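Appendix B. Chain record.
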Amino acid sequence: MEWKGRRQSTNVEDARGRKMVAGGASLGLLLRFVGQMFGTKGILVLLGLGVVGWTLGIIDPMALMGGGQVREVQYEASPAEQEQMAFVKVVLADTEDVWTQEFSRIGHEYRAPELVVYRGQYPTGCGTGDARMGPFYCPADRKIYIDLGFYQALEQEFQAPGDFAQAYVIAHEVGHHIQTLLGISQQVAKMRGRPEYNQYSVRLELQADFLAGVWTNHNQRYLDRGDIEEAMRAANQIGDDTIQKRTQGRVVPHAFTHGTSEQRMRWFQRGLQSGDIRDGDTFEIPYEDL
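Structure tokens predicted for this chain:
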């Protein structure tokens, strides 16, 4: 991917020099305080609001069970990591350019997400972010979180090297931001707790892959030979069936949350071929046909 010397996004927060330490109010202390102030009815109201917030994806209960504080620590990135940081900023800038134009085309205003680069663990609007989770999008604060160490894992553990494989990961998370802007994520969050919730999660993830493909379609002038193959390889390696085979030796379809390798590659390819955000409604298709 041709990226050096190009515009870098200013919507990137560098949190690599910050470390999360124990602290914050626990859920137990919060309940005790409310109980003392408002009695049992106050506790019931608080719990009710918590359930509603969790159902809508606004509150992560884990975020209330210990919390965390952040303090500044000494940190000096290597030249290689600094170059990787510059790459992330360029990719995010590309998503801003493409989606601003595409949203305008369908009569919407695009509001770009912030991308937070952290190390280890970091507090988010969706609870504690952990590098072991990989990159993720938090709809509560509308931010993308990534530990750059994931890219090493993507290359070594998932056998998906290449800069465009890394770009695909960011584009997928931006896809989740788009789903939040359009109200799709909120509708899926309402299904939480129902038996069919996993199917809705798969639909949401495959649509994010489609949106990553749409972004790629509008960004092809910057691609090098082999870039599409890198993205397809990454999509293949992070499919539910492939990960389950690697980690537990068997495939459990009812536990899928992101879709199979074949599905993820196919929906990315569909977005790449279409280039139109309106062609990716994964919720109108029978689940078995996704």
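Further analysis of this model is presented in Appendix C.
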